[in-house]
């Protein structure tokens, strides 16, 4: 995505002022604003197809699965805790 071609950049540190400026600019430059919107729509329809999204998600999950799991280390502690709680209830 290219700023001012596919979207209008909004600054995090001056969000309200950036939004106000963007709206005012869009109101005074309707044709250019429409072109940005049409270009963004075309980008989404052509480059952000669900096949690409699913492919990206697969790779993220695959990479994430290779990270060390905290849950695996947690189970012995949980089982020990559960045993002591159940034992104390009897």
TrEMBL record:
<dbReference type="Pfam" id="PF05686">
    <property type="entry name" value="Glyco_transf_90"/>
</dbReference>
<protein>
    <recommendedName>
        <fullName>Glycosyl transferase CAP10 domain-containing protein</fullName>
    </recommendedName>
</protein>
<feature type="domain" description="Glycosyl transferase CAP10">
    <location>
        <begin position="1"/>
        <end position="69"/>
    </location>
</feature>
<dbReference type="InterPro" id="IPR051091">
    <property type="entry name" value="O-Glucosyltr/Glycosyltrsf_90"/>
</dbReference>
<dbReference type="InterPro" id="IPR006598">
    <property type="entry name" value="CAP10"/>
</dbReference>
